[in-house]
Amino acid sequence: MLATLITAVVDGLEGALVRVEVDVAPGLPVTHIVGLPDAALSEARERVRGAIRNTGYAYPQGRVTVNLAPAGRRKHGAAYDVAIALGIMVASGEVVASGGDWALLGELSLTGEIHPVPGVLPMVHTLRRAGARRVGVPAANAAEASLVDGIEVVPLAGLDDAARLVAGPKGRRAARARRTPPVAVSGPLAESRGTDASLVRTDARVDLAEVRGQVAARWALEVALAGGHSLLLVGPPGAGKTLLARTIPGLLPPLDEREALEVTVIASVAGLLGPGDGLRRQRPFRAPHHTASYAALVGGGPRLAPGEASLSHCGVLFLDELAEFDRDVLEALRQPLEEGSVAIARAQGTIRFPADVQLVAAMNPCRCGYAGDLERACTCAPGEPERYVRRVSGALLDRLDIRVEMPRTRPSDVLLGPEPECSETVAARIALARERAASRNGGRLNARLGGREIVEQCRLATDGRDLLAAVAARRRLSARGIHRILRVARTIADLADRASVSSTDLLAAADLRDPAATERAGLAA
Ligand SMILES: Nc1ncnc2c1ncn2[C@@H]1O[C@H](COP(=O)(O)OP(=O)(O)O)[C@@H](O)[C@H]1O
Ligand SMILES: [Mg+2]
Q1: Which of 155, 403, 445, 492 is in Cβ range 3.0-4.6 Å of 142 for a Cys bridge?
Q2: Nearest Cα to 119, choosing from 351, 359, 356?
């Protein structure tokens, strides 16, 4: 007897429909699965066989042929397990299908439990577009599946639930007497889900009111977040670089509808959506540890999963201890950061993950951390501080829009200084500036403007143009350098709600790039 069921796989950020056709015929008791890569094949066969038996159904004695169509499509993961199992159960007569436009997703354990799988959101989206009206999904993925309108979501805990769904209210030989009692389930669940183990701890939010002193760095962060400009914090250990970065989640405005869906799809494909997680509203803030691998940061790996660059899409990627990162890994990040997307090459063409990311980084000025400190001697060997900074490629450093030095936090700042502004106040200014920029730039942040666009948006008066020419000549700025100053100046004007960019804004922007150079050039006065 032949049975056909519908399921899906995920490919990049897209779901793709897969038809499961099962034929059970008399013959030697063998199971053939066609349409799966060799490695996945035997595993799927064992999971399905174990799940069917341990749920109390009979595994057919004859010859079982399973075809996953289309054959040419790459099928990784294990979301098709449940559909294969039900296909076999229907084809062998263990379950009588009631018919209907439904589909099944989920990975099976040997005990018949249904485990969550990555990418349920895009897969359900694809199934709905293909006309499915009901979909059975792993119970832990039900919340994300429910984000798709127009399709009924049925949560499945085990293979028995899937059998009931397929059998429908009538025609239910599915409830054929169990031959074996259900196996008690223990052990770690859903181990295969993506983990955040490689992240620097950032869960505890920090309010800006906790960051004392560091006026320049606070201001630089405000400008960076208002315009989407990349930012580098340099300072000795204990200056509060990590502390300041951890205020970022509380300073960013929430995602809009389109962004929220994109961010949630990426989290879904990475397997990072928890059982109760609905649409992601909060802008991502990811802080991968400096030991993170190329695949972890950029994406790819055996599962073709999005990396940190894509997990920070529409938000901030924070690289703490920048100089400790593997140089090649940082180098690999450069292109995605510039293009706003990651391209991952594989056998069947390239897939792209979005990575429209704002980079924030922090580093010590040298290995001991005290180079340039007025009160504490640097213990590094001569030449060592320069070498330390050079560990980060010049090309990457050159692409950081704002650089700010954080001096050691003085006791007087901590004990006596004025009460700093809190995150709520600063977040409100940032949100307003972003709205002003967005309404002028067709929804984009200032950092995303092209060279011609930024020149048009700045509407410089004559004195501003002269000043910029002087700064550019003194610092031997390239066109890129000039555009960078203009973008940051535009943001500073937006924060102050000024329609055009003044000379003061230009000087302030030049300072945010290289304060020492501005001083040397005698332009600060
Ligand atoms: N400017 C500051 N205001 C308040 N506390 C600070 C400041 N700088 C450092 N600290 C305290 O020192 C701790 C270590 O700071 P941290 O941010 O880890 O420094 P860094 O990353 O620059 O080495 C912080 O958790 C905080 O308690
Ligand atoms: Mg730190």
Answers
A1: 155
A2: 351
Q: Do 378 and 504 fall into the same domain?
A: no
Residues 342 and 266 in one domain: yes
Asked if residue 216 is part of any domain, the answer here is yes
Are 229 and 446 in contact by the 8 Å Cβ rule? The answer is yes
The residues, ordered by sequence, that sit 6+ positions from 265 with a Cβ below 8 Å of its Cβ are 13, 121, 122
The reply to whether 183 falls in a domain is no
- 434 Cβ inside 6 Å of ligand 1: no
Phi and psi based region of residue 169 (left: phi greater than 0; alpha: psi -120 to 50; beta: remaining): alpha
Decide: 494 and 510 in contact? Cβ < 8 Å.
no
Is the residue at 184 inside a domain? no
User: Could you tell me the pTM of the whole model?
Assistant: 0.86
Which amino acid residue places its CA nearest to atom 12 of ligand 1? 238
Q: Are residues 166 and 220 in the same domain?
A: no
C-alpha to C-alpha distance for 519 and 516, rounded to whole angstroms: 5
The domain tally of the chain equals 3
Domain that holds residue 349: 208-419
**Does the beta carbon of 115 lie inside 6 Å of ligand 1?**
no
Do residue 367 and residue 246 come from a single domain? Answer: yes
291 alpha carbon – ligand 2 mean position (Å): 15
Whether 348 and 236 share a structural domain: yes
DSSP string, 176-209: PPPSSPPPPP-S-S-TTS---TTBPP--S---GG
Angstrom distances, CA of residue 306 to CA of 299, 314, 338: 5, 14, 17
**Ligand 1: which of 208, 234, 243 to mutate, judged by most atoms within 8 Å of the beta carbon?**
243
Domain identity same for 509 and 413: no
Quick check: helix, strand or coil at residue 219?
Answer: helix
351-373 pLDDT per residue, tens? 889 999 999 999 998 888 887 77
How far apart, in whole angstroms, are the C-alpha atoms of residue 403 and residue 405? 7
